[in-house]
Amino acid sequence: REHTTSPPPIPTGMHAAVLQALEFTHIIDVLRGCAVTPLGAERLAGLRPLTDARKVAPLLAATSEGVRFNELVGGFALAAPADLASILASLAVEGRALEPTRLLGLAEYLESVDTTRAAIRRTEHAFPILKALAESGASFRGEIAETRHKIEPSGEVADGASPELKSVRERLRRQRTRLKGTLESFLRSRDTAKYLQDQVVTDRNGRFVLVVRAEHRSAIPGIVHGSSSSGASLYLEPLSTVEINNDIVALEQQEAEEVRRILLALTDQYRRRALDLQRTIEAGTELDVIQAKARLSALVGGVEPALAGDGAFELLAARHPLLIPAVAQRLADARAASARGGEGGGGVSNAPENGPVPVDVKLIPGTTVLVVTGPNTGGKTVALKTAGLLALMAQAGLHVPAEQGSRVPVFRSVFADIGDEQSIAANLSTFSWHMANIVQMDRSLALPALVLLDEAGAGTDPVEGGALGLAIVDHLRTRGAHVVATTHYEPLK
């Protein structure tokens, strides 16, 4: 099975441009950094807001369980090697033996999942979602013990991995000692030492040889295995050591074959339990996703918002998560890490030292339009983006940085008209782009819908722009959308 995660299709009204404009993609970058396994990070990269309340509710509940578990137990004991996906891909190839370090990495990962599952099962508190995930996995305790018994922490296959390997390696040690003694006798003997270029024993294509001066080629009977780049030295295997060298080469081949047999047997013990392995990996990945969401909740001081069936959209003391210093620093660090390779160091956070000023956003039933006005640099656009981003976060199963009592609908479509996207290539002015964007919103509108308009009607004559902004907001209100708009226009106010 391919252990890759492709992002799900983005629902109507949740287009990539909206996720980008509201900086949901930055939240994903921070969230991926909270994962502790590569499979968890990969799955989180594909996280998207959902549009079905029946699916959103259990995601939020799972995040809440993760938060409570972290507070009570101290976190999930998950760990995995960076190349876990590659290890699993190799495991799927029948007859392929995993390298020793990869077997150890797989064992470490499965043990961490088993430890996490055991911790969840032991707790007396109610964690129905976590416990269901814990029960869906399988234990690989026997396979892990076998792997660690036969492979040293250094990654070497242990002598005691099999009687045959132990016997071969003992014979190899004896023959190498014998060979070393024989060759060193040539170094010590006055009769032969004078013909040597260097007083060393070296390896040439897997055979131990002496370095002899070329002009003394016939002084020591043996087989020449090449010469130095200058031709002044020859690599000579004395005839008295040929048989020992041959024996060593044969024993090394036996050793390699036995090591491969051991590694294949260790690999196959996991391969034979393919379904158990798949279920355990799935459980481990989902647990990592939940703990990453829980860690993000702790970073932002998040709460689980209630899902409002009556259309209420109330964010109490809401804070833009990317303006929270701890989140901003993590995002800066993630950007610096991805850009590293040449010069560069840590990222610089743009968040205020004390964090963002909280804002209430309230659209209670009976009211579906909120118009925000005020001076430039007063925070209107940030408030607009905060409302949209927190709605997207909630629908992706994430806690939101707000106070208890916050309620959000599950929107089928979210639209944002923010910024200046004029295009010379497409022959679109700033005003034309905004109008084209709003027309597309109107065509794709699916209720319940959230529409965010930054400076509605801007980009044209102020009098005409004010009338146009009023008409746009009123039209969207009539169609049943929740609208949050910023404006300087008196008619719209």
| Strand element count | 12
Strand pairing plus helix content: what structural class?
A: alpha/beta
Helix content: 40-55%
| N-to-C order of helices and strands | HHHHHHHHHHEEEEHHEEHEEHEEHEHE
| Nearest-integer average pLDDT | 89
Count, helices: 16
Overall shape: elongated
As laid out across the biggest beta sheet, the strand order is 1-2-4-3
Radius of gyration: 34 Å
Summarize the biggest pleated sheet: 4 strands, antiparallel
What is the CA-CA span between the terminal residues?
A: 58 Å
Low-confidence stretches: 1-6, 342-348, 422-427
What amount of the residues lies in strands?
5-15%
The quaternary organization reads as single chain
Task: Give a structural overview.
With 493 residues, the protein is α/β, with parallel strands linked by helices. Helix content is 51%, strand content 13%. Helix 4 packs across helix 12. The chain is elongated.
List the helices and strands and how they pair.
Layout: H1 16-21, H2 24-34, H3 38-45, H4 53-73, H5 84-91, H6 100-122, H7 128-136, H8 141-150, H9 163-188, H10 190-193, E1 196-204, E2 207-213, E3 222-227, E4 233-238, H11 239-271, H12 274-300, E5 306-307, E6 313-318, H13 325-339, E7 359-363, E8 369-372, H14 380-395, E9 407-408, E10 413-417, H15 430-444, E11 449-454, H16 462-478, E12 482-486
Parallel strand pairs: 5-9, 8-12, 10-11, 11-12
Antiparallel strand pairs: 1-2, 2-4, 3-4, 6-7
